């Protein structure tokens, strides 16, 4: 007990002494303790929550050198510079070093002076690196951005999959893996690949309560964009586009509209990229228009809005990118423009990729499309996607603020659940909807599902409708998806109870953006009519003539009659 307390003081004082912080955040302390005890540790924490400290501090307390594996040279350099500034001996090993620099790092590591050695996965796999690491006294291995291991993550890096084998060749070392990507699928992949099923898992909530999520149809997008950005005049914001060309175009569009905007993408000269990033960080520019190349490791606390001009490729990516807004805990607005055309375009991009990769990206895109189409609380959907239960509606997203009318779905939910049971819990969402709508396809026929009592029972609705019902039922946990098995749907205890004792359940109809756009256009047309309504003109003309006759004046003067002006502005234009 006493020892523990002493350790307590030691960790806290180290935190203050080296990093200048007086408190640990969230799970940091428990995580640090776990790794100090030599246990494998798996940390899942949102971006900006403070993952780095979870390996930096133990590295200082333990004997020897901690290896930190990080995917980007820029990230490594950032951290090393920062640690050096704190007076910590941290170094990196990557392709940017000269031979003599490399040798110096190796010497200082073997002698035990280096407390943190940052290594790119490519360097790690080199035989000479291995040889040298075997000579060093390594305290533990930290694998930062561990989602790079998984094809289901948004930054898959094949070299990451070799890390485990290499660690084994160095010695029997504790591992701490860290990521901000928390889908159950990715989490499982990481643990499997790193063979750390028994690791202590520290997962923080992914709810970013200060972020407002909003999806709008991609319609007159440029106009909407300008209006939106101008309504945040002088505030920091990021606009993500999918292509470099689009980045340039949008940056230019904003500039000609008096917004201080700069482009950022991998096709720009490194010096320009740096300059633009710095200008954004130093507030010489308000808006950075970028591809997803921008942002990893960027820590600007007061980004007030994040716009996805194009539909993102995955919910993970979307969550990461929106996560760069409101890091100071204040207002953060996340606006995404969505169109199914974007989804189709993105699907085409991955056409030439290997089959599994192509199927993966297709599934991720479908999830993205469902998120956008759904009228369910965005936060609930996001958190569910990350395996986190969120019962109520958040009240702080577009779907909560402008709720769609709900419909009674008791019978349809029973029907959907029954279909899952009758097809023996061996199929995914598309098949369930196919059976319900009475589709004739290869699977339906070869499994004899056209003989089931539920076959065609839902044919009054289309596939989209049933997909939406099933998705909402998943959110309410009447069903669950087997993530290891192609998203096969399984019924839960709660679902079984529902079939036996159904009760009223309200679901929301998906957005139909085409319809919404048409309505909005109609509304706007009526609005502009207040200025140019034909009826109004006709009426004025009539009045003009009449009054001109009465007062014997030329008609145009009458427009100066205040009562007439008043009449013109109060004339009701919307029916
Ligand atoms: P992550 O890797 O989880 O995205 P970082 O490790 O980059 O987050 O940390 C984000 C920010 O939080 C950094 O500016 C860091 O200095 C700060 N930070 C981390 N831990 C603490 C703490 N205990 N107290 C105050 N600030 C902290
Ligand atoms: Mg980090
Ligand atoms: Zn909500």
TrEMBL record:
Keyword DNA-binding among record annotations: yes
Catalytic reaction list: Couples ATP hydrolysis with the unwinding of duplex DNA by translocating in the 3'-5' direction
Domain Helicase C-terminal: 221-369
Biological process annotations from GO: DNA recombination; DNA repair; DNA replication; SOS response
EC identifiers of the protein: 5.6.2.4
Enzyme class: isomerase
GO molecular function: 3'-5' DNA helicase activity; ATP binding; DNA binding; four-way junction helicase activity; hydrolase activity; metal ion binding
Residue segments, region Disordered: 511-532
Key words of the record: ATP-binding, DNA damage, DNA recombination, DNA repair, DNA-binding, Helicase, Hydrolase, Isomerase, Metal-binding, Nucleotide-binding, Zinc
Keyword Nucleus: no
Domain annotation Helicase ATP-binding: ranges: 32-200
GO cellular component: bacterial nucleoid; cytoplasm; replisome
Cofactor: Mg(2+); Zn(2+)
Stated family: Belongs to the helicase family. RecQ subfamily.
Protein name (Swiss-Prot/TrEMBL): DNA helicase RecQ
Organism field: Adhaeribacter soli
First and last residues shown, out of full length: 1 to 575 of 728
């Amino acid at each position: 007990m006493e020892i523990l307390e002493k350790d307590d003081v030691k960790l806290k004082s180290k935190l203050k002494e080296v990093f200048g912080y007086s408190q640990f955040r969230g799970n940091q302390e428990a995580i640090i303790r776990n790794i100090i005890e030599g246990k494998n540790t798996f940390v899942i924490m949102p971006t900006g929550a403070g993952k780095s400290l979870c390996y930096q501090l133990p590295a200082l307390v333990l004997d020897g050198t901690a290896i930190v594996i990080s995917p980007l040279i820029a990230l490594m350099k950032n951290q090393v510079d920062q640690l050096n500034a704190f007076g910590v001996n941290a170094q990196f090993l990557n392709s940017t070093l000269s031979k003599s620099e490399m040798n110096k790092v190796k010497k200082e590591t073997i002698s035990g002076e280096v407390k943190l050695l940052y290594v790119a996965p490519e360097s790690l796999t080199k035989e000479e690196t291995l040889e040298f690491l075997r000579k060093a006294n390594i305290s533990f291995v930290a694998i930062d951005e561990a989602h790079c291991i998984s094809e289901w993550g948004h930054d898959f890096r094949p070299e990451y999959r070799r890390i485990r084998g290499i660690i084994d060749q160095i010695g029997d070392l504790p591992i701490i893996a860290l990521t901000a990507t928390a889908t159950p699928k990715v989490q499982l992949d990481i643990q499997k690949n790193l063979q750390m099923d028994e690791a202590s898992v520290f997962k923080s909530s992914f709810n970013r309560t200060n972020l407002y999520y909003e999806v709008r149809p991609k319609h007159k997008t440029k106009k909407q964009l300008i209006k939106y950005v101008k309504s945040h005049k002088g505030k920091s914001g990021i606009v993500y586009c999918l292509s470099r060309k689009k980045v340039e175009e949008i940056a230019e569009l904003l500039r000609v509209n008096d917004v201080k905007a700069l482009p950022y993408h991998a096709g720009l000269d490194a010096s320009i990229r740096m300059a633009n990033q710095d200008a954004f960080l130093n507030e010489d520019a308000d808006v950075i228009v970028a591809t997803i190349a921008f942002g990893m490791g960027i820590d600007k606390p007061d980004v007030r809005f994040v716009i996805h001009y194009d539909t993102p490729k995955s919910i993970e990516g979307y969550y990461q990118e929106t996560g760069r807004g409101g890091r100071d805990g204040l207002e953060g607005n996340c606006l995404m423009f969505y169109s199914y055309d974007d989804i189709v375009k993105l699907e085409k991009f991955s056409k030439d990729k290997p089959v599994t990769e192509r199927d993966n990206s297709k599934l991720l895109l479908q999830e993205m499309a469902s998120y956008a189409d759904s009228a369910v609380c965005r936060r609930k959907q996001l958190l569910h996607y990350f395996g986190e239960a969120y019962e109520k509606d958040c009240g702080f997203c577009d779907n909560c603020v402008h709720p769609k009318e709900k419909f009674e779905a008791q019978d349809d939910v029973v029907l959907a659940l029954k279909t899952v049971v009758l097809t023996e819990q061996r199929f995914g969402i598309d098949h369930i909807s196919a059976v319900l709508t009475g589709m004739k396809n290869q699977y339906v026929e070869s499994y004899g599902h056209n003989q089931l009592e539920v076959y065609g029972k839902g044919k009054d609705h289309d596939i989209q409708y049933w997909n939406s019902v099933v998705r909402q039922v998943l959110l309410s946990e009447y069903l669950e998806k087997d993530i290891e098995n192609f998203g096969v749907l399984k019924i839960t205890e709660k679902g079984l109870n529902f079939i036996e004792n159904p009760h009223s359940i309200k679901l929301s109809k998906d957005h139909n953006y085409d319809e919404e756009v048409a309505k909005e256009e109609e509304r706007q047309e009526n609005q502009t009519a207040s200025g140019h309504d034909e009826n109004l003109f006709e009426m004025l003309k009539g009045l003009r003539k009449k009054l001109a006759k009465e007062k014997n004046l030329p008609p145009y003067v009458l427009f100066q009659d205040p009562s007439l002006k008043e009449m013109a502005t109060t004339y009701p234009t919307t029916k």
